[in-house]
Amino acid sequence: EPEVTQTPSHQVTQMGQEVILRCVPISNHLYFYWYRQILGQKVEFLVSFYNNEISEKSEIFDDQFSVERPDGSNFTLKIRSTKLEDSAMYFCASSVRAGGPGHEQFFGPGTRLTVL
Amino acid sequence: QQPVQSPQAVILREGEDAVINCSSSKALYSVHWYRQKHGEAPVFLMILLKGGEQKGHEKISASFNEKKQQSSLYLTASQLSYSGTYFCGTETRGYQKVTFGIGTKLQVIP
């Protein structure tokens, strides 16, 4: 069964450093998402991406964050200068569509980001 | 605005039933239900579109009352594998982000 994959599974970085989290969405999916989940809390939407551009972003997704689809398979989230409060589990998800049937999102296993 | 889930936590014995509720202060286009086990990614259960439909997934079903802006997830004859945190996610219109609630922690004990 096709699945979303993410690398690395765990990333430790120093405050102020740049990190890139990588995702490979399911191959026939067209819509891609990044979510964040701070330990023990809810899943928070960061950004959605379609047709090589951002469709929607949350207030969390400020200028420190960027997303890219550098090739036909990868979808990346870059955090330019990490802060302590960026420590969280980051999930990538993908869906066939963005509304109605087909909007079900399939999540990757997540990357745990720890900022020291 | 995030949907409100209730209860926040529930403990069941195997075989018992549970209902998890999700409500919104805004008109809803769709409701999504996911289950997340500890340390794992959320797993899609079902999506309900406005129209009041009810869907089923094995012994887990859900309803959506668009007039009341509410959805309920029904777990019948619970199994140990049902343990986890259940999130509802809502869209207020199509082609929009899904906003998740804080989740309901469900624990099924023998």
Write the layout of secondary structure elements.
The complex is a heterodimer of chains A (116) and B (110).
Chain A: E1 5-7, E2 10-13, E3 19-24, E4 31-37, E5 43-50, E6 53-57, E7 65-68, E8 75-79, E9 88-95, E10 106-107, E11 111-115
Parallel strand pairs in A: 2-11
Antiparallel strand pairs in A: 1-3, 3-8, 4-5, 4-9, 5-6, 7-8, 9-10, 9-11
Chain B: E1 4-6, E2 9-13, E3 18-23, E4 30-36, E5 43-49, E6 54-57, E7 60-65, E8 70-75, E9 84-91, E10 99-100, E11 104-109
List its traits:
heterodimer, A: 116 residues, Immunoglobulin-like, 7-stranded mixed β-sheet, 4-stranded antiparallel β-sheet, B: 110 residues, mainly beta, 6-stranded mixed β-sheet, 5-stranded antiparallel β-sheet
Please give a structural write-up:
The complex is a heterodimer of chains A (116) and B (110). Chain A is mainly beta. Chain A has a single domain, classed as Immunoglobulins (Immunoglobulin-like), CATH 2.60.40. Helix content of chain A is 0%, strand content 49%. In chain A, the strands form 2 sheets. In chain A, strands 2, 4, 5, 6, 9, 10 and 11 form a 7-stranded mixed beta sheet that branches. Chain A has a 4-stranded antiparallel beta sheet with strand order 1-3-8-7, with no helix packed on it. In chain A, a hairpin with a 5-residue loop joins strand 4 and strand 5 (43-50). Chain B is mainly β. Chain B has one domain (4-109): Sandwich (Immunoglobulin-like), CATH 2.60.40.10. Chain B has strands spanning 4-6, 9-13, 18-23, 30-36, 43-49, 54-57, 60-65, 70-75, 84-91, 99-100, 104-109. In chain B, the strands form 2 sheets. In chain B, strands 2, 4, 5, 9, 10 and 11 form a 6-stranded mixed beta sheet that branches. Chain B has a 5-stranded antiparallel beta sheet with strand order 1-3-8-7-6, with no helix packed on it. In chain B, strand 6 and strand 7 form a beta hairpin. Chain B is globular. At the A-B interface, strand 5 and strand 10 of A face strand 4, strand 5 and strand 10 of B.
